[in-house]
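Subject: Kinetochore protein SPC25 structure
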Amino acid sequence: MKKSFEKLDKLRHGSIREDITDLKQKIEEHEQIHTISINELKAQNEQMRQSIKRNKELQNKIAKKQESISKLKADLAARDLVLKESFKVENLHIIDAKKDYYEFNFADKFQFKLKKHNDNKTYEYILKSQSEELPNYFCGNYIFDYSNLSKFFKKFDSMSA
């Protein structure tokens, strides 16, 4: 019986050693996987930090460009009444501006030209193209007085809505 007990005791010690070896190996594998996961997360965090940094830089650039555009618009508006009035209209975009005419696009619905006459007191409205039915006051060509520029551009408010 003593021999059986010693035999069982050796088996138990051997089994425990194998279990310890297995557990050590599993712990090492888990530590390696954990290290790999941590490194991947650190790399992702760094990429996200870089992305956030780039986004902030882009936001700053956009803010500077918007400020520059606002200053330019204010400068142009101070020098030119037609541009000043046109800047007040939402969706009205300047395509071209020369000494004697201005060309506009309104919300991609139509394009028109304002041509300054030689007397510098009247403008001719010339419809260039349209993509949909327009109110009568935007159809055809007509001449209006320089003093009515504000009235002319206010007509666009009904089209903006």
